[in-house]
Structures are given as C-alpha cells and as structure tokens.
Design a protein that fits this description.
The chain is of the alpha/beta class and about 180 residues long. The protein has helices spanning about 15-25, 55-65, 85-90, 100-110, 125-135, 140-155, 170-180, and strands at about 5-10, 30, 35, 50, 65-75, 75-80, 95-100, 115-120, 160-165. Strand 5 (about 65-75) and strand 6 (about 75-80) form a beta hairpin.
Length: about 180
C-alpha cells in the first residue's frame, strides 16, 4: 500500500522540524516541494525548500491542472503542491508527506481521500506564540496575521484523521513515523 500523509498545522508549530527529524531516520520518505509566489527567505534554496514562481506562472499552473492543491495565504502569497511529482512518487511506492496549510489539506481530502490527514498541534497556544516569535522570520504584523490564522487552524483539528501534539520533536517524529511507516 502506498502511504500518503497530508501534514498540516499552524505556522510555527514545528511541522518542518518534525519532518526533518523523521527524514533524518528515514531518508527514503519523500517530502513534496511546494510552489509559492512569495520571495525566498535567507538561506532558502530553489527546488529544495520551494519552487519560487511568479504570479503569472502560478496562474498558468492552476489553469493547466498542474497543482494538486493551492491556496492564497499569509497576506496574498499563493502556495501549491505540484501534482506530477506526488503522483510519480506514489506510483513508485515511495512513502510521501505533503506539508501544507489547512485550505490545501481540505482540497487534498476531496481529490485524494485515501491520504491520511495528520494535524500537528502545539502543546498550548502560548507555546505556539513563543515559537513563532522565537524563530524571528516574520515582522510583528505578519506574526499577528499568522496567529489569527492559527486560531482558525486549531479550531479545525477535528477534521483530521490524527492529531500529534508537538511538545517534543523526537516524540512527535516517532508518532509520525508510526503512521507513515507502520511496519518498520
């Protein structure tokens, strides 16, 4: 059985950190690379962290059905998952993770209901605030926008098949590993 996990949770909850810890133990797990219209942050690499595309290119990808899901988030930037790469990895039997937002998870549930939907939650809202502030990648206005979005996302966690509380990265990665690779 091919295993596809759709992983979502609020900004700053540690989704990327949990996935990195899992992939350190299991490099065979494929993590989709999203396309985005936002500018790269310092240290981000094209094709590794995101595919950075223009608004026109993103619109073309939507029009031609090249995105499995897409959404406009965080002040107008668009993010989406290229469909072809996901289909190819699943066809090869590779365990896959899509690390996406709530809107995207809802779209994937419609188009790929067989995917396991997993929500990464913080131990508390206060911890989420501390993590988001601590990473220092957004200005105050952007942080406030992301925290408002986080409240909506946290309220939607019951829509997911599984919820993993990220109070410890190693434990959260272990829980994700058991879901994605149950026979290992």
């Amino acid at each position: 059985m091919n295993r596809l996990i759709v992983l979502a949770g609020p900004s700053g909850v540690g989704k990327g950190t949990v996935v990195r810890a899992l992939r350190d133990r299991h490099p065979e797990v494929w993590l989709s690379v999203s396309a985005t219209t936002r500018d790269p942050r310092p240290g981000e690499v094209e094709g590794k962290h995101y595919f950075f595309v223009s608004d026109d290119e993103f619109s073309r990808m939507i029009d031609e059905g090249e995105l499995l899901e897409w959404a406009t988030v965080f002040g107008g930037h668009r993010y989406g998952t290229p469909r072809g790469a996901v289909d190819s990895q699943l066809a090869d039997g590779v365990p896959c993770i899509l690390e996406i937002d709530l809107q995207g998870a809802r779209q994937v549930r419609e188009s790929m209901p067989e995917a396991l939907q997993v929500f990464i939650a913080p131990p508390s809202f206060e911890v989420l605030v501390d993590r988001l502030v601590g990473r220092g990648t957004e200005d105050e206005r952007e942080r406030e926008r992301r925290l408002a979005t986080a409240k909506d996302e946290l309220a939607a966690q019951d829509e997911f098949d599984e919820v993993i509380v990220n109070d410890n990265v190693i434990d959260a990665a272990g829980a994700l590993e058991r879901l994605l690779l149950p026979s290992r």
